[in-house]
């Protein structure tokens, strides 16, 4: 129960209180309301809902369960990385002797060690850095993603999309190439066949002679194919077909 003060109660009062609690749990009586008029869950056990005595709580509430240490000074900000504050045009006293920025000394300088520091050359004075200090809360200190700009993730998405697009384009090209090769290989053996048919016509009716000639042609064909390479692989099929006809 969220009743605040645990003043003395008679036996009768105590019994009534228990009955009311039971009724609330069963949903027969309306739930107890806290200071802000919000309902208090009747199933919250007493040891959680009753406030400690030293809080002197007058009314039922669950405020003591909330974190009252929340400090408005805590920020969710992050450092302005790479931000420059002031660009000097000549060396100032007390500045970094190496780069000429006021915000650090030569020992802490992140600039390349110059052969002759900015103090002596008075040239290429580095701008002062923006130095910030934050008061971060417990979570803020441990937040590894603090300061992360979620919109930069679109760059990652873009790069992946570009990759996918390039892959699709390449695959399409490969497919077209394959189809072209297939087409050309289908046409080539047909040409050969017609050539060889002509030869056969010239030889005339002598079948044995024709057969001999055919084998010779095939042999020479094979030699030619070897020299020509892959392109006319279909030619061998044509020759085999011719042999079968004889
Ligand atoms: Zn420096």
Automatic annotation (TrEMBL):
The keyword Nucleus applies. It comes from Sphagnum jensenii. Belongs to the SLU7 family. Residues 22-42, 175-237 are annotated as: Disordered. Residues 204-233 have a biased composition (Basic and acidic residues). It comes from the Eukaryota. This is Pre-mRNA-splicing factor SLU7. Residues 136-215 form the Pre-mRNA-splicing factor SLU7 domain. The lineage of its organism: Eukaryota, Viridiplantae, Streptophyta, Embryophyta, Bryophyta. It is found in: Nucleus. The keyword Transmembrane helix does not apply. Signal peptide: none annotated. InterPro entries: Slu7_dom, Splicing_factor_SLU7. Pfam families: Slu7 (PF11708).
